């Protein structure tokens, strides 16, 4: 009994120890990003390419999910609001839910799945096939070329994708309302605009920069530190999605608390 | 013990003294010491896992050493700042075992990528001219717009070699340049190594298990055993070695 307890304690100790080491390494990686990002030369061309790949190439996915978010939210909320005779609040409720919470979190999760896994697999594959080493021995800074550009691109593109998803979600909401009724588009939009204030948009947009930064950071960290062997490429991609998704929820929770405190 | 071989008027471009490297409890290098002389082709032999690749990765600072001294062009690698180390790296070419071509870039981009970053004054036309010139030197001018996935093993090695040549290195480190290739292609790569040495006056360290390649390319051979240099000499000397273990490489 005592022996089992000791073994379990040792396992817990090892796990905690490894977890702290991992957090330390990730922090070091994050600090290196800021150091390398401000130091010239800058890889503008690669940054633009990554913005295109991460932003533009994610548009179809974000369009579909954004539209469905708005549509489903409207259809699901309508009966409850109708029960209280508050059906006319539907446009405001849908817009506020989308902008404050649903669009940022769902879009970030979709991007964690698509972008973080893509970055993790790409860098992981480059690591195991010695392409990153090849850059280093050619006196090219692989961290600056591969990591800095990708993290910057996700930090810039995720907020834009979320704003786009907000818009598409509102369109989806309009379609949802018109399945069971007939609401004029001008009236719908004016109700939406009237209900949204700066304090709804500002904190929600700020948190999306953090979502973007962490999606890029985690994807790059997992890929860049993949150990030798093709198996580690899959592990890096998988681990990037899981960690990035979890981090999005943690950031969202912190962001809600901070918003409550200051706004 | 084998006779020590030294080039006349030897002028070392790489000096390795008492190099130690461990990975956890596994001590791979236990005091490796050898020199690479200017203009020389040095072949490193040894069993798989004996630390040959690790040794050349230590030379370019890809792997941090535990102790010992590595001097390249009279500069101690371990004490250099990254910018100084990068200056040395531009004078060393490294051919990876699997060529390590950037698979998202075409052959042209693989070659121009490095050049563009080291000489920002070069125009697009001048870069193109350089790329064509090195591709011609490895006999693969026609592959310029191909992607790495479209190339055969031998072609990948040649393009990898072209990429190392683009910065006109004074030293080239070859990590198993003929592994995985058929006999004819292996011979072509070995001849290319000799041709490039003659043309560019480079010094090279060649890690290989391919004895025809070692015979063709080597001026001198060192054999790693249990983390140290067990023996050194010319191909002919080592082939006739009294040490049975050494002779077993040449059968």
Tell me what you see in this structure.
Chain A: Its main location: membrane. Chain A: InterPro entries: ABC_MlaE_roteobac, Permease_MalE. Chain A: This is Phospholipid/cholesterol/gamma-HCH transport system permease protein. The complex is a heterodimer of chains A (263) and B (251). Chain A has nine helices and no strands. Chain A is mainly alpha-helical and 263 residues long. Chain A has one domain. In chain A, helix 2 packs parallel to helix 6. The radius of gyration of chain A is 22 Å and the shape is globular. Chain B is α/β, with parallel strands linked by helices. Chain B has two domains: 173 residues, 3-Layer(aba) Sandwich (Rossmann fold), CATH 3.40.50; 68 residues, no CATH class. A six-stranded mixed β-sheet of chain B has the order 6-7-8-3-9-10, sandwiched between helices. In chain B, a hairpin with a 2-residue loop joins strand 9 and strand 10. In chain B, helix 3 packs across helix 4, helix 3 runs parallel beside helix 5 and helix 4 packs across helix 5. Classes of the chains: A mainly alpha (263), B alpha/beta (251). At the A-B interface, helix 4 and helix 5 of A face helix 2 and helix 3 of B.
Q: Secondary-structure map with pairings?
A:
The complex is a heterodimer of chains A (263) and B (251).
Chain A: H1 2-38, H2 44-54, H3 59-83, H4 90-128, H5 131-137, H6 142-180, H7 185-195, H8 198-224, H9 231-262
Chain B: E1 12-23, E2 26-37, E3 41-46, H1 52-59, E4 67-72, E5 75-76, H2 82-89, E6 92-95, H3 107-118, H4 124-137, H5 153-165, E7 171-175, H6 183-200, E8 203-207, H7 211-217, E9 220-225, E10 228-233, H8 235-239, H9 244-247
Parallel strand pairs in B: 3-8, 3-9, 6-7, 7-8
Antiparallel strand pairs in B: 1-2, 1-4, 4-5, 9-10
Helix pairs in contact in B: 3-4, 3-5, 4-5, 6-7
Organism (chain A): Flavobacterium tiangeerense
InterPro entries (chain A): ABC_MlaE_roteobac, Permease_MalE
Membrane topology (chain A): Multi-pass membrane protein
